[in-house]
Structures are given as structure tokens and as C-alpha cells.
Amino acid sequence: MTSISVPKIVSGGSFLLENAAPEDIFTPEDFSEEQQEIARATAEFAERSIMPRISEIEAKDFAVTRELLLEAGQLGLLAVDIPEGYGGLALDKVTSALVADRIAVCASFSVSISAHTGIGTLPVIWYGTSAQKEKYLPKLASGEWIAAYALSESSSGSDAMNIRAQARLSPDGRQYMLNGEKMWISNAGFADLFIVFAKIDGEQFSAFLVDRNTPGLTIGAEEHKLGIRGSSTCPLVLSDCAIPVENLLGEAGKGHHIAFNILNVGRYKLGAAAVGGARHTLRNTIRYGKQRMAFGKPITSFGLVHEKIARAAADIFAGEALVYRVVGAIDAALSALPADAPAADVQKRIEEYAVECSIVKVWCSEMLERGVDSCVQIYGGYGYVEEYPAERAYRDARINRIFEGTNEINRLIITGFLLRRAMQGRLPLLPAIGKVMDEVMAGPAARSEATGPLAAEKALVAAAKKLGLFCSGAASQKYPTNLQDQQEIMGALADMLVEILLMESAVLRAEKFGSRSQIAISLAQLSAARSFRIIEDSAERILAAVAEGDMLRTQMTIFRRLAKHDPVNTVAIGRAVAEEMIAAERYTL
Question: What is the topology classification, in CATH, of domain 148-254?
């Protein structure tokens, strides 16, 4: 592989406007020795300790889950994000994502550990007082205590600010009295600490640290879920739940900062876990497919099975490129801060990449669903049987499109945040749209002169960015003041942005291998071909929604000019990819 370098610091959303080089982004080929070692240790823990106990985990034997979380704590896997002064390791975000990735062999346990280390622990790290950190973080780092995050209510899922739980200061000013109900709280059945959100006097959205044994806190019965059945999900009932005033987390009325800033981290970690789950699923798929005989030979010898395996492998390759590009960019931005930078500065650097975090969440959650669907198909009838892993993987994957903000909400964030940054002058999107509009009205431009084995894919990336800008311009002209109300168009624009970042990431990653890895080139070609088809479809939907008659015909002429390309032979490429994966019985990169 070519030599690697630290990725440059880039602005959030700039991927649509700027052309990146391979050395500008972080990919799995750039993992340090320490990161690789932690990834290996996590994978070994998952194989050695988690997989043999999946049946117990799925049966809701939470003593087993606690035992495994304690073992993870002993290995340092719960302490990656925690400062050293409080028993943590204070490692980078790529390492944190790697742990989420490599531990994802059992979705139920993955949810338990991610809820603890992410939304359960990060609020204390970022917003806790020194006394709060000293009290809780060492226990959370070791696994002695497990944390949970209590935001959702029956009437406020995606609309988080609409919570009804209330907090009132006692007459003596020494306690807050919490009343209300929380729903769908991960880890609730065995958590020791809850991050609970409530409105002080029904107005100030705030967060509180609530210990499990606090009088007035009742843990409801376990929910019986479609998937992730081995994770704990319970409601909480707060009935005059009295907590000391020093357990207010952060500032009164500023709880929304905690709620929303934590979600960006949760989104990229969910994406990493989805990639890990897809990698594990592909291994199971291939191993079973090689054993399943049809017409006298294993079904992995058939072309349509090759196609499924190749598509899954290309998705994993691109997903890895996407996740670690985004998290690497966050680490690069954080590296410019002093070691003692206040939490607010850290959060601001992460929030810079809110669009990218939502892209990771949306694409990876939907990618995993494609992978588990193919797994069930290749298992055939046994894919519907509980004793086989395909059935559980299929059920478990569905929640990812709801967790960390639904994919619908995240699609609106992707487009809405990008447009908002442009209107605030923080991203030169409007000049870029104007430049493309001028270019397309001037007539056909010269084709890309990119060279090398990925020349066609690099030309597709360039064309995709122009299409994204062109469609954004067309939509903005039609709805100059209320585009945010046109959710179908906003969603289609988001689909374009998702695939643009994905395909560029996959192509740049493959370029890092150079001509020495044909498999990386092939995976990038398969991924780019699929992405561009989605971009074309989304562009057609947008243009048909914002124009009609002669204007639509003109815009479609421009669209066809920008989208013109020669297709690659995905059949032949897919066969070669599938054969390598089948021979190795796993994803090979």
C-alpha cells in the first residue's frame, strides 16, 4: 500500500464542493499499530466470550450481560472515551468506533455496551462537574456500574423537545422532585445510573443523574421486542423521585445540548457497529452457502448467489471507507485542540460533522439490512428458523433505522443542515450551485481526463457532485423560502448526498491500494456503479417534482448530459469478487 498521512482538517459538508485526494482522508489502511491491536483484542473478546453465550444473552440472562460488560471493562473497552484522570484511556474516536465495529457479533450485546459507553457515559464526561466525574466515571470505566439514557417518552420519540417529564425544586432548595414516564430505555433492567431528561417547572429542558436506588424511581417490565431481544428495554416511572440538586447535569435549561450533541457520536458508532455486523453476517452467509447443496453442487457456485455475496462485500468495503473517513475527520479536527480544551469546544468540533454523522447512520443501517436479507435468502428455509443465525440477524437489524433518530429525521438533517450552513455563510454552497448552473447552461463540457484503473469511477464522482449541486439549485429555485417543507424533495436530495460521500470514499480508499490490489478496485467499482444508479433515480424524482413542460425537458436534457457514462461490467467484476470471498469464507479486506 502507499504511504499514509494524517488527513487534513476539512469543513463539514465540504465533500460536495471540494475534490479530495486519497491522502486527504482516513481509511482502515491508516490504522495505527495501537488501533489495530485494540481491534484485534476486541474481536478476540467477541469470538471467545460473547459468541459462545449468545443463547444466554438472547434469553435475557442479564447476569451474563453484566459479567461480559465487566470483562469488557477489564480489557479497557469501556474506558476508551473516558479521561485518564477518572480511570479511562482517553483514546481517539477512531479507536472508539473500532471497538463498536469489532464487538458487533451479537446485536443485543452490542446495544448494551454502546448504550453504556456512548449515550450513558459521554454526558458525564462532557457535562459533569468534577465531583460528578469522580463519583461515576471510574465505576463506568470498569464496568462496576452500567449507565442508561432516559430521553424518549411515548409522545416524544423523534420530537425530543416535547417531553412531559417535569422537575420541581423542593421548598428547601435541596432537591429536585422528578415526575413522569420514560419509554424504550436501553439497559434499564440492570443499569445503575440513568441520565434522565425533564423540564424544570415544565419549561427548562434539563438533564439529571439518577441512581437506580433513588426512592420514587420504578423500573417497568421488560419489553418483548422484534429484535435485539437480549438487550434490556424497560420503561421508567418517576413519582416524586427526589434527587439532590448537585445531580443536575450541566446547566438548567441546557439539556438539549446534551441530548443532541451526544447523538452525533451515537450515529457514527451505530454506523461502525452496522459495518461490523455486516462483516460477521457475510461470513455466516458464505460458510452456510458452501454447505448447502442444490442440483449436485454448493449454492455458492451459482451466479445469482455470487451477485449477493459481491454486493455485500462491496457494501462492507464502502461502509468501512465511509465510517472511518468521517471519524478520521473528527479526530483530525479534535487533534487541533489543546489537551485541556473545554467540553464545549470538543462538542463544537464534532457537531461540525453532523451532516456526515447522519449520512453514516442512514447508509450503514440500510446497508446492514440488505446484507441480512441476502443472508436469509441464502439460508433458504433455515433462514426462518431460530436456531440459525440468519433469523436473529434479520430481526436485529431493523432497529438501526429507528435508533439515534429515525432515518427519515436524519435525511432531513442531512439536507437541512447543509442548506442552513450555506445560508449562514459557513459553507460556499450557493456559489458552487451558481457555478454549476452557469456551466450546464453554457453547453457540454469536456469530459474528465482522469487516468488509471479507477478513471471511470472518478469521473462518476465528479458527475455526481455536479448533479447534486444542479438538483439543489433547481429545488431552491422552485422553493426559495420553504424547501424545508418539501420533505420528499429534501429526502431525495439527502439520498444524493449520502451516495456522493459514499462513492467518493470508496474510490479514494481503493486508490490508496494502487494497482497492487485488484480486489479493492473491483469493490470500489461495484459500489460506485450502485451509488450512481441511486443518484440518477433521485435526480429524476427531484427534477420531476420541481419542473414541468419545457422547463422539465430542458432540465432533463442537462441531467442526461451530466449523467452520461459507459457502464462497467458489474457481472464479471462481481463474479471475481465473490470467488475471492467464497474461497476465504469471509470478507477479505
Answer: Butyryl-CoA Dehydrogenase, subunit A; domain 2 (2.40.110)
